[in-house]
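Example for tutorial group B:
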């Protein structure tokens, strides 16, 4: 599957979405900083699963109609930074969707995520990421899960990667920087955390009207592990998926 993630920079890059989906054959689309009152129900064959509702600039998830069927949606308010408390830019910072893959007959979870801005401490963002990943497991414990978005975490990602692995997830960066607006803040801001997925590639796409560059995640669900069963009547080892 191919998943696009894009921080629209206060909805400025919304007009680019159809061309991005068509040009890259995206099956899923995760948005951050979109005007949830001004997004369409469909974008080039992708249908809106849901969007956040408690803040105007929020999150949205779209899915390809002939590939997936939405089962459940969950949004989450995360621990707030001082920036959030004073300016109140975003109430909900994670939007997760449980989908059924029609062809494979399996469920999966996809989420759009937007961490607190750089004015907050990395420790707060790590708390937000950990809480979001734990919440997604409430949608389906053990299901393949892919959370993408703007993590606002340009430095000390090794520490974040360790914390993520402790929860059973993997942290994957794209092949080039995703934020280039300010000289001293350039770096990888947009990436993915995953469980039960083989990430083939995360590609940073060309700059548009946003200060973030969109990323394209190419991934497939890992094969379900087969667990050993007690020996059968003939002494052989039985297995079950």
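The residue assignment follows.
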């Amino acid at each position: 599957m191919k998943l696009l993630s894009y921080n629209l920079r206060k909805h400025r890059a919304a007009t680019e979405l159809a061309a991005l989906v068509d040009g890259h054959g995206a099956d899923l689309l995760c948005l951050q900083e979109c005007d949830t009152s001004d997004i369409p129900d469909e974008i080039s064959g992708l249908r809106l699963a849901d969007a956040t509702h408690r803040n105007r600039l929020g999150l949205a998830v779209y899915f390809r109609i002939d590939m997936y069927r939405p089962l459940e949606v969950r949004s989450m308010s995360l621990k707030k930074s001082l920036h959030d408390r004073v300016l109140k830019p975003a109430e909900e910072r994670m939007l997760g969707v449980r989908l059924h893959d029609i062809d494979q007959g399996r469920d999966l979870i996809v989420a759009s995520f937007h961490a607190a801005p750089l004015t907050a401490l990395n420790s707060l963002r790590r708390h937000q990421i950990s809480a979001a990943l734990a919440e997604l497991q409430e949608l389906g414990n053990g299901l393949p899960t892919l959370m993408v978005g703007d993590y606002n975490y340009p430095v000390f990602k090794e520490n974040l990667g360790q914390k993520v692995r402790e929860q059973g997830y993997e942290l994957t960066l794209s092949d080039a920087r995703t934020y280039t607006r300010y000289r001293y803040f350039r770096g990888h801001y947009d990436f993915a955390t995953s469980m039960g997925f083989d990430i083939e590639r995360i590609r940073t796409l060309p700059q548009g009207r946003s200060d973030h560059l969109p990323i394209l995640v190419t991934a497939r669900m890992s094969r379900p592990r087969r667990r050993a069963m007690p020996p059968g009547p003939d002494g052989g080892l039985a297995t079950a998926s």
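The two ends are 23 Å apart (CA to CA). Compare this with the pattern of hydrophobic and polar residues in the output above.
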